[in-house]
Amino acid sequence: MSRRPTARPDGRTGGRLRRTLLAGLVAAAVVFPVSAAASPNVPAPAPAVLGEGSALPDRYAANLANLDEAARTAESAGRGGRAAKLRAMEAGGDARFLVFDGRGKGRAIEVFGDLETADRVAVLVPGSDTTLDTYQRFRAGAVSLQQRLLAGHPRSAVVAWLGYDTPGTVSPAVLTAGRADDAAAELGSFLPSLARLAAPEAHLSLLCHSYGSVVCARTETGSEVTDIALFGSPGTGADSAAQLPTRARVWAGRGGADWISGVPHVRVLGVGFGADPVDPAFGALPFAAGSGGHSDYLKPGTASLNGLAGIVLGDSDGSLDSPEVSHARA
Fold this sequence. Notes:
The chain has helices spanning 12-31, 56-76, 80-90, 135-152, 178-197, 211-217, 303-313, and strands at residues 97-101, 107-112, 120-125, 156-162, 203-209, 225-231, 249-253, 285-286. It is built from seven helices and eight strands. It has an eight-stranded mixed beta sheet. The chain is an alpha/beta fold and 330 residues long. Helix 4 links the parallel strand 3 and strand 4 (156-162). Helix 2 runs antiparallel to helix 3, helix 4 (135-152) crosses helix 7 and helix 5 (178-197) packs across helix 6.
């Protein structure tokens, strides 16, 4: 945990706090035009109940049926906008959801690829304002990554993990770790079960965008997770990669036009996330993130997509040849 700065008579601590809050508001103003408001009051059925040992085809079928019921329920309630978004998520009946919950902002964990034969699995963890109402934006990145992985390794899969209540970009919650702490507990319990569903001894990588990097930095991982990539990160709340509760390799990258580079890397009274993960002093392995903006990391043809795919496949520049950095806690 980062040390809290002591108050100074010249008011510097207060000034840093004000700058952090202001940066958050500025960031919110930048992304608000491309954010969609969630629809927390749309009625929806309870999620499907499945046993831990349920076969993947049964899981996919049960969740797709629940998704269809959620769309019909929204239509009956006169919520055509949400219904249309849910219909798009069905992908013509081909979508594969490990988890689906249409209530409130929603939960969705979707698989791209053949999970049972995959020995390289990427788990995408999204940032703020990712809900069922903005899901197609998240899904597009997952599809792009999967297509890139398949070009280099057919036995690969991507899991789009919308398994937590993401904070709104225009909200105080996005400046603190409260939502991330809750999400880390969910993600930590999900990863071992995911590893059991994949091919034996599959390597899992966490790819963590924006506020999702705060989630990943708090998630305790086992040996099944070999790599964690933080991109578009505001910080993690830790002073260094060595403080993260994982033995995985930790990577960090930031696009040249990402507005988040302007967020002050301070942590005051629980507000802000401290050290910059792309700072060499943090101790993460760097990957080439190109010149794109905050929402561009998974776009086809970008250096950032190539870099992230390389991390998943174990052939990113220097990932196998450079000395491995230990991130075990002392």
